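A common beginner's mistake is to predict each chain separately and then try to dock the pieces by hand. The better habit, illustrated here, is to supply every component at once so that their relative placement is modeled jointly.
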Amino acid sequence: MDLVKKILDHYEKIWVLAKANAVLEWDSETYMPKGETKERGFITSKIESMIQDLMTDKEFIKWVEQLEEKAENDFEKGIARVLKRSIYYYTKIPKKELEEYNKLIVEAVRVWEDAKKKSDFNRFAPYLEKIVEFKRKFAEYLGYKYSPYDALLDRYEEGYTVKDIDPLFNRLKRDLKKEYERIKEIWHDYHWLENEPYNRERMELLNKTVLSMIGFDFNHMRLDVSAHPFTIELGLYDIRITTWYHKKDFRRSLLAVIHEFGHALYERQIDEKLWKTPLQGGVSLGIHESQSRFWEIVVAKTKEFTQFLEPLVKNILKIDADSEDLFKYFTIVRPIPIRVESDDVTYNFHIILRYEIERDLIEGKIDVRDIPEIWNEKMEQYLGIKPKNDSEGALQDIHWSLGAIGYFPTYTLGNLIAAQIKYNFPDLETHIENKNFATIREYLREKIHKYGSMYEPKVLLEKSFGEPVNEKYFIKLLRERYR
Amino acid sequence: MDLVKKILDHYEKIWVLAKANAVLEWDSETYMPKGETKERGFITSKIESMIQDLMTDKEFIKWVEQLEEKAENDFEKGIARVLKRSIYYYTKIPKKELEEYNKLIVEAVRVWEDAKKKSDFNRFAPYLEKIVEFKRKFAEYLGYKYSPYDALLDRYEEGYTVKDIDPLFNRLKRDLKKEYERIKEIWHDYHWLENEPYNRERMELLNKTVLSMIGFDFNHMRLDVSAHPFTIELGLYDIRITTWYHKKDFRRSLLAVIHEFGHALYERQIDEKLWKTPLQGGVSLGIHESQSRFWEIVVAKTKEFTQFLEPLVKNILKIDADSEDLFKYFTIVRPIPIRVESDDVTYNFHIILRYEIERDLIEGKIDVRDIPEIWNEKMEQYLGIKPKNDSEGALQDIHWSLGAIGYFPTYTLGNLIAAQIKYNFPDLETHIENKNFATIREYLREKIHKYGSMYEPKVLLEKSFGEPVNEKYFIKLLRERYR
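With all components supplied together, the output reads:
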């Protein structure tokens, strides 16, 4: 089909610029000299605007619209769908407002950093108010089915609305509460390994050894260090992850590596036929997170995996912990105010809380100024704890200052889907026990990775697992693991 | 002037893409996973072609032509001059031929690598023949004054022709021969430090310490490791250098660092007013090389500098060498067949030899097949040595396989200009003795760096030193140093 070729030829430029920007971003998070920030920001934003110009080229838009009508197979339909989404965003929101918004964001992040340092929500509030105002306007431009929040959520998790999330999260909240009450009665909330110092070079070697053994392809992948762990795809043949080092509590570094490995594997196992097309790339944040969490909380926290780790920890890290220690250390349950350091049981309460607040903000049911109070009330209600101050309360996450409203729910979707995959995968524990990680990688490739963005998340889940996202598997995992 | 603004606005995109490509290149030489080569090559060549499209935009060309006529000051004249040169190259050579040529180059480098490994010039010869053929055609497209070689040389050293280089190199050859004959009678050709092993980490620390002390701005610069040392400018506020490590013979690593520092300082000290304009960047290879060689052979090989180094080498590298040892070690004179490992006295014979061969090739006076014989004869004549085989003879350098014909003379121009600067700079040795490197940096900034590409090399030399490039200063340096 000549039309597809024309579209892909034009898209190739967009792809090339996006990859260039990814390398610039990776560099700025890892090796860029500290004094370079401003110039680099200028360069990446210019490239971003070139991408936008190419995406909104009138001829190109016409072709995509034609393809939408004429698409003959899943590949073509996928291309039309994914491109339409990008075009839609750039064309529905007036360029001028998007520029104003982007300027606001740059300042908002700065102010949030300052406000967090001083634990002063009121300092950040006027900026968040402006962000919410922009987001509500954007939602109107973009259109939505039930709630303006849907328009925002859809950017991160295509096809999902409050009508999906509300009932799902409500059931989860109910069942998770029960599980949590049960678990906290019988489970440990501390382990001596949390305070065990480690040697940085040995830790690096342990990380690399574990990565090698689970299938990290160092010929096409790298591990570096950054302020916060992340994965970035610089091409189908160049995927990079980072981790961090804290001198003690080695699970933070190791589990981050395993988590990012899951993201990286997804990008690496996308079908080569999708290379340079709009379908080369994970389909959504939720599906992506399901891949990282699958390795981090489903695979790595089994007793089989801690048995696999025991000799590595003993011999490489020179820390004398057996597999039972490791299992206990990895599964501590302790409610704390900070989301990113939370355990797997309480984590989703942090997300539900954020979801409820941001949804109500966008729907105009609450005001920005009310957030700290609501935050603390919900924290008390869900986890029985109270943040000492805003800095470990409503100011802890960078997301809202970046304008990422509608992003949080994807973390919980990822957790739920990760557990869902586990119960669809026969004999997972046996494969881990046999260090047969290749079979696990193949399973993920066949069920999810190879499709890239060809199917929207709901369709992909239906196709691969025969049902929509379902919280019962995650609850089942907690029931089986914490007993 | 509205015209300048229009030109600079358009040029900004070219600049942005060039910087992105520079980051991609730096990455591919330092940290890129080994398996990534093909995809990365695709990305950089696509960006290169976007740059070419922007540079040959018809409206843009019209503006540049208008500016050429109307330019009112050195800034505007410089912009018109520099842009005209790029436009000229892209528009005079048919795009199709340039593409064919680029494809040939990719293959030629591969074949050259193989031929060098097998020390078989005949394997490479057919490719070099095709390259020479292309270059002769390009010279006709580009036009020239005296020799088709001028058109090629001008790409690397704007404004220079065989009528400049022939008499200069002939005088140099004559005087250098005399100096060399004199020096080899009285000078040492070996030093024990050549075989002294070093500790890699200590060497890295020594490199960084020396860099810090001579004024490397780690806030805007980095030092990394690569197969061959290089400098790359990723922006006015982000300049990076690399070095290498060989386990012994530490001057190779240290002097490479000092050499690259010279290149980096040039790019870093360009006037901020030239940021993002076509004038932000060193003006030519010869002037650039004069900056690196100034630090490497003029500054670092003085007795004052080796006195400055002595405690650092003793304390950091833990090698017990005094300043006299270091001076002798840095100034060994020993004729060898390999250019890049040659001493400062014999080095320029290697360049003159290459220049004479490539000039005659382009002028059709000799054939590619004759190169090895001519090479070996000249080697015998200039230095009294014979390469064992083509691999350490005519195949040793990558340049010709890359199509870089007209490039070699700039190395010698750099050496000569470096010495010329020295004798224009009062009390250089005293400043070195006082570790007063800031004054040296300021001198270079005022005389050369700040102008970027505003003046073509000949004009710049006239303006800053009142005369054209002159070989007598280099000869004087040899006379004073080697006695």
